[in-house]
Amino acid sequence: MNSSLRQFMPERADRYFSGNSAQRAVARTLFESVADLPLICPHGHVDPLLFADATYHFESPAELFLIPDHYVFRMLYSQGVSLEAQGLAVNEGEDASKVESNHRKIWQTFAEHYHLFQGTPTGLWLRDELHDLFGITEKLTPSNAQSFYDRIADRLAAPEFTPRKLYEQFRVEALTTTDAATDTLEHHQAIRDSDWSGRIYPTFRPDKVVNGIDQPAWKEQIDLLCAVSGIDIRDYSAYISALESRRDFFSEMGATATDHAAETPFTEVLSPSEADAIFQRGLAGKASAADARRFTAHMLVEMARMSSEDGLVMQLHPGSIRNHNAEVFRRFGADKGADIPHALDFTRNLKPLLDRFGSHRSLRLILFTLDESTSARELAPLAGHYPILRIGPPWWFYDSINGMQNFFAQVMETAGIYNTVGFNDDTRAFASIPTRHELWRRVACDWLAGLLVEGQIDDDEAFAMAHALAYGLAKEAYGL
Amino acid sequence: MNSSLRQFMPERADRYFSGNSAQRAVARTLFESVADLPLICPHGHVDPLLFADATYHFESPAELFLIPDHYVFRMLYSQGVSLEAQGLAVNEGEDASKVESNHRKIWQTFAEHYHLFQGTPTGLWLRDELHDLFGITEKLTPSNAQSFYDRIADRLAAPEFTPRKLYEQFRVEALTTTDAATDTLEHHQAIRDSDWSGRIYPTFRPDKVVNGIDQPAWKEQIDLLCAVSGIDIRDYSAYISALESRRDFFSEMGATATDHAAETPFTEVLSPSEADAIFQRGLAGKASAADARRFTAHMLVEMARMSSEDGLVMQLHPGSIRNHNAEVFRRFGADKGADIPHALDFTRNLKPLLDRFGSHRSLRLILFTLDESTSARELAPLAGHYPILRIGPPWWFYDSINGMQNFFAQVMETAGIYNTVGFNDDTRAFASIPTRHELWRRVACDWLAGLLVEGQIDDDEAFAMAHALAYGLAKEAYGL
Amino acid sequence: MNSSLRQFMPERADRYFSGNSAQRAVARTLFESVADLPLICPHGHVDPLLFADATYHFESPAELFLIPDHYVFRMLYSQGVSLEAQGLAVNEGEDASKVESNHRKIWQTFAEHYHLFQGTPTGLWLRDELHDLFGITEKLTPSNAQSFYDRIADRLAAPEFTPRKLYEQFRVEALTTTDAATDTLEHHQAIRDSDWSGRIYPTFRPDKVVNGIDQPAWKEQIDLLCAVSGIDIRDYSAYISALESRRDFFSEMGATATDHAAETPFTEVLSPSEADAIFQRGLAGKASAADARRFTAHMLVEMARMSSEDGLVMQLHPGSIRNHNAEVFRRFGADKGADIPHALDFTRNLKPLLDRFGSHRSLRLILFTLDESTSARELAPLAGHYPILRIGPPWWFYDSINGMQNFFAQVMETAGIYNTVGFNDDTRAFASIPTRHELWRRVACDWLAGLLVEGQIDDDEAFAMAHALAYGLAKEAYGL
Fold it and tell me: Residue B380 in contact with residue B345, Cβ under 8 Å?
């Protein structure tokens, strides 16, 4: 029965392009023009250790594909497979007896639930990675799972399968990591001290010393900040000095950007005395939730001020309620697939920051969203006006074919492509990077092909825009 | 002039499929594979009397198609046709002199405004029902309206046109009704006592004894609850006992689910003493609007608790401001096409419930929305993580081709299809049920065809997903 | 390399139609049936002086296309080109030394940034205007910019290039302007006094005497209102009388509509004494921001009351935070491309107005939105029920191909096309009017073509709907 449909499935080279034959032909030509461009990876979460250690190898297929990937384990969890059965470590003090340590079993469990990923970006990434990295062309099933495991494991052990060699094979031109303000950047130092020429740079992410001033963990982070900065942080001005000092250090280590997460894009300018009063309450363990909200809001403006002075590109990632599942957070910790978006308001919340810095000549602020309804309504009009603003690519739940198509449809008419910053993979899964960039490039070229066949752009424009979206915009936006 | 376009209109068998010939061919093949599957109708509003009375016949074409259908009469009302002219009864005490009782006249008025439904789902349903049930292939016009009326009326009077016979003709496998907590389920009992083997089950919908504790009507409902439960409800714990007793009765009568409507998905856990204090104020007629809001929020959690114990699948339908038109509500009562959606927040509002029951092993909570902006932003991430959650199909204003296409585009990438529950028709119009399911199946198959021609899924996956969306998911989700 | 794509670019006659050949063929036929219909322009911002002065000529290409167009200059501003360099005048007291007065230089700067408009509606409008009005078929580049400037300037100076002659050439049937409540309508009087038969009518827009009662500027406007009405406005009832008197004057001058902008659609009914108390605080310069918000809300209901009596169609344009960029507002004034939308709630905010007038027999209220998430969720259900409501076309940032496609997809299934009001160009750029209407007609016909090839509508319906969307609905809705 199935064979009658096979004829309508595209060649692999045409995947993710429109079913319309003219649009597909245009998309293919555009994609060919950008397929071999180097990869710019200006925002991600790859561990720099992978490059500091010249002989690093991935431990197992489960370690490579499953255990660190919240897209994967949260889907199985949603269908009743426990996180322990998927090999996730529990927090100290929690019962660890049910944590599966046999990676073959974890892989088998995954294979038995692989159908859950039908029609999802995770399914596409996995399929394409198995194909491109491991030459696997069949679909994963419970019965072939163990033989695939063997094939992947063999390849992981091969001498050419180190992150450094993959970096070159993938044609990465530059890759940035995300690092706490208190990070010593020792792995980055090791890379710089080595004879390897890959461009791995840190990104300054001070969330832990900025957010949550009402939480005990914040005070511990301030202690760490004292230690790494060598500054005795007893008041707000010392705190600012310590942050500036850390930013300088990150810049020296190659950073070109900072990154900031917040539940909302709320910004507010506090007077120095207000800021210090809240800061002192934080040090004394007496800050309130309202204090924390206002302090984060103030520090976003302060970070914009610092960026206007030191030139680090500022990124803002708002909109996720982190660790929404209280039980999972207690037992397994943060980042376990339970970060849930909510509705955002950029228009009013960013105004205090923009009133100060919106037209600054040497500041760039890249905005990301998890609320698609803000894309056409707020982000595109804001970035289509304010000189400092650019719009980041579809993020997280929107790093998908529909997410990208919506992004093009919702942002570009008002902001134009030149107020956007191309793609970033935002991943900790290094091996998935070429797959993700290829998906973006395919979907971008298909969008442009649609504009061309509908008479909105001509061929010259299509080629130029494809190059910009695939490569040029990201490189320029982050100064890489 | 028109004839030049006729050639581009599809065969009837291909309606609602893409204009792209490859996608259409795939959609047709997929649809053929599911077209004859039985219908699972796990949520709707058909009157069980239709099946309790073995000889029930529909009164007239106007009674079948127009008078009970808020999709129809609100559209004519929006264009200046009074509700009286459409045969809607007024409340006691209101002037009934202008209520049209001649069903032929009502039908004629409808035919004169039939163009209002161009490009609407109501227009498609009506057209397809006229075709499939009555063999009418021409378009309804003012001039053919009376002859169509005759044809339909003749058929309605035919011996085979009883709901029981239609149930079999439609290949319904199971159908649930929606019933107040205080309902005696006498019609369901009559069906069980009969020799007819159709599977008609009740659904426990306690809104009237849960919502509006600040309204006089609530107290009347509690009196009814006392009467049917045989429990003297003088405090909150007796109230809970009465509800549990009613749930047990519904379960005995075949119910597998409950249903809950609320203006928002706000949940909150009250202490027993707080809950009882509000309850006592309700009994005394002294509850406030804030009391009502909190009591509903608390009772949603309490209903989840009961479902976790008795296994009834819980459904939540939030987001409609009911009876928005004050004048229409006063004169004609509830459900007159004036229920208007508003923006929702599931992420924060559901957290108290999810903190208690989000990972429960034997609870299932199906969420519906009237705010499409929550689909990708909140529902898909929530259902893609929490084991208890599933996402209900596009509801009400979104039970349409665009609504379904948006649903597929917005939900599936993050949640996967297996965190959704297939289709339900949610209708009180029994005769429209096959039409609605066919529309869903067509649109679902067309979506899958699009994924296939774009290389996102293969043929095996497409057939499996088509079956799940058309039949399997609904059956499994509701245990039918 | 590029030539391989040329073959896939459509004929100019097929631009903005689907790439699907069947849909395109249908769209072309439908478009041909409406392409030559007269233009109804029921809402816009063209200066009536253009028609009062029989010999008016546009000053230069920069004056025609660039300097007054906030779509254009905000885009260049967002990429670092100052507003001064684009020829925008600064406010009194600001440094005017850098304002470019050489229109050739402004044009050149624009040409050097023309790529910013790739894939934007502004890019399409400009391209089509250059083609249709000036016969320019090549793309604007820095190197051809000056020769194009010459060609355009020559044509602008030609005797047939007056607004009155263009009005006829464009086949405009009626065009309305937007005028302050205090406007003397002298240009409209001059048109009426002339021998020219063009139909140019005013629209009553009282924002400046209604909004901002807490601002000094409001009091100045009230003084103006006293002067033009001849009424000594010392209390709320005199204020109402003055407004009613102005509305009568506008009606006499041909107005058929009013227009109202507000940050939100919030409505509220104040008692006469409350209204007068706020009004008195406003006169005394002591009104608060809360007063201003409530007064606007009340006045929207009051304007609905007046419309129900004098028959002027009421338009409501909510949702923009005006003059978001504080620095640009201070230096350049209002309307400089820094008006940013935010999330709206029509459902609750309009209820007080609808409670009073929702089912009125002789009132029409047309709603516009800048928050697309309200289209399917709120506007379509509201307009699909309330007799007084109609939905205005996609506005501002949504006056684009995607905006129109979204509008059709989000509004029509629930509201039907007959609860919408066709198109309006909403522009101050008179020469762009045919281009904008043609874009709308093309996109509307393509939408209908999609419905036809998918079997949702037949050919008769498609032709009727195309005519309504292109012409009939706007004419009927505004009584033009």
Answer: no
What's the average model confidence in pLDDT over B136-148?
97
Cross-chain CB nearest to C462 (options B5, B124, B139): B5
* pLDDT tier for residue B463 given thresholds of 50, 70 and 90: very high
pLDDT in tens, B313-369: 999 999 999 999 999 999 999 999 999 999 999 999 999 999 999 999 999 999 999
- Region C235-263 average pLDDT: 98
If residue A305 lies in a helix (H) or strand (E), which one and from where to where?
A: helix A289-310
The contacts of residue B403 (CB under 8 Å, 6+ apart) are B372, B394, B397, C376, C413
Signed CA dihedral, C297, C301, C307, C310: sign only: negative
Structure tokens at C208: 């400046």
The reply to whether residue A347 touches residue C341, judged by beta carbons under 8 angstroms, is: yes
Other C-beta atoms lying within 10 Å of the C-beta of residue A209: 23
Q: CA angle at residue C130 from C124 to C132, to 5 degrees?
A: 95
**Are the CB atoms for A334 and A279 separated by under 8 Å?**
no
Given pLDDT bands bounded at 50, 70 and 90, which one contains residue C1?
very low
Task: Please report the pLDDT score of residue B238 as a whole number.
Answer: 98
Alpha helices by DSSP H, B93-185? 103-112, 121-134, 145-157, 163-169
Amino acid letter, residue B242:
A
Strand order in the sheet with B200-201: B39-41, B172-176, B200-201
Q: CA-to-CA distance for B56 and C98, rounded, in angstroms?
A: 84
Q: Structure tokens of B128?
A: 């397809």
Query: Cβ of A342 and B359 within 8 Å?
Result: no
Give the C-alpha separation, C420 to C410, whole Å.
12
Give the CA radius of gyration of chain B.
23
Tokens (6 digits) for C323: 């003059």
Rounded to whole angstroms, what are the CA distances from B352 to A110, A295, B302?
Answer: 31, 27, 11
Percent of chain A with pLDDT over 70: 99
Which residues touch A277 (CB under 8 Å, ≥6 apart)? none
- Long-range contacts formed by B288-292: CB under 8 A, 24+ apart: B288/B214, B289/B214, B291/B213, B291/B214, B292/B211, B292/B212, B292/B213, B292/B214, B292/B215
User: Do the Cβ atoms of B328 and C20 come within 8 Å?
Assistant: no
Low-confidence ranges of chain A (pLDDT < 50): 1
Sign of CA dihedral B397, B399, B405, B408: positive
Backbone angles phi, psi at C368, to 5 degrees: -115, 155
Total residue count of chain C as it appears in this document: 480
Model confidence pLDDT, tens digit, residues C57-78:
999 999 999 999 999 999 999 9
Testing the interface with C: which of B6, B116, B118, B407 to mutate, by most C Cβ within 10 A? B118
Neighbours of B7 (CB within 10 A): 10
- Substitution target in B345, B360, B377 with the highest count of A β-carbons within 10 Å is B377
Give per-residue pLDDT as tens, B243-296. Answer: 999 999 999 999 999 999 999 999 999 999 999 999 999 999 999 999 999 999
- Predicted structure pTM score: 0.98
The DSSP-derived string for A188-250 is HHHHHHSS----EE--EE-HHHHS-TTSHHHHHHHHHHHHHHT----SHHHHHHHHHHHHHHH
Evaluate whether C316 touches C365 at the Cβ level (below 8 Å): yes
Distance CA B164, CA B189 (A): 15
ipTM: 0.97
Using a CB-CB distance cutoff of 8 angstroms, which residues of chain A are in contact with residue C118? 416-417, 457, 461, 464-465
Q: Contact at 8 Å (CB) between C281 and C332?
A: no
Chain CA centroid to CA A452, Å = 30
Question: pLDDT category, B432, cuts 50, 70, 90?
Answer: very high
